[in-house]
Amino acid sequence: MTDIFLGIIQGITEFLPISSSGHLVIFDELLPEVNLDTNDIAFLHIGTLFSILIFYRTRILSIFKNFDVFKYYLKIITVGVLPAVVIGLFTPIQDTIDNSSQILIYTGIAYFFLSILLIFSEKINTKNAFSINEITISHAFIIGIAQAFALFPGVSRSGITLLAAMYIGVKKADAIYYSLLLGIPTIFGAWSLTFVNQSFEINTNIIIPSVAAFFTGMFAIKLLVKFTTNSKLQYFGFYCLFLSVVSFVLN
């Protein structure tokens, strides 16, 4: 039941701007008897990956129908994931944070930073917002830099890329779409590394929790779209502010 619970939490927190890694840090402190296997958590991401593919299946399939469109999306997605990949693979930041005795402090600061961005996101002027088809290399790189901050637990990958796209001027619906498109290679890459590190072995006990992550992920994407388009992201901001306080108290 614990694994299924983690699958549900993973599905919800992967897409809502509340940081799945931040929740895991807090749960690990509150429930020390629960052994959170990071390898299993990585496999849970496959469930959330399929959530993106199924939810946006029509738009994603349309990308492959036109070679020029495919090249454009390949370009902005590659540039968008590059900063996080370079920093994650070639710097010790991730290991330093994960192994730090002050990880709850890092998480608290990250949650506070994210909460401020979320609370004030509805002040963004969307009058001249542009579509995903107008995202430039510069735009993609800036959003990619923002995504790199998700290496800190407490900074939501989907949330920070969504916010970065919105602050740049991308339409809300397209900002969500681009944010989740960036999640496809990011999630698949993290899973692939884990799969290789585990000598291509799959823990069959994680299959059902991954299915749970898929269904809750679908629900979370729908909720994210609703809250973003209805200008209610500040509610997630207040929740992240609460988690920031919890992180500092637990430290």
Explain what the structure shows.
The protein has 251 residues and is an all-alpha fold. The chain has one domain (2-250). The chain has 12 helices and no strands. It has helices at residues 2-15, 20-30, 38-55, 57-63, 67-90, 93-98, 103-119, 137-148, 157-168, 172-197, 207-229, 234-250. 41% of the residues are buried. The model has no long low-confidence stretch (mean pLDDT 89).
Tally of domains = 1
Could you tell me the mean pLDDT? Answer: 89
- Helix fraction bin: over 70%
Rg, rounded, reads 17 Å
* Cα separation of the termini: 28 Å
Percent of residues in β-strands: under 5%
- Strand element count: 0
The helix-and-strand class reads: mainly alpha
Following the backbone from N to C, one meets helices and strands in this order, namely HHHHHHHHHHHH
In terms of per-residue confidence, which ranges show pLDDT below 50 for 5 or more consecutive residues? Answer: none
Global outline:
globular
The largest pleated sheet is described as: none
Please count the helical segments.
12
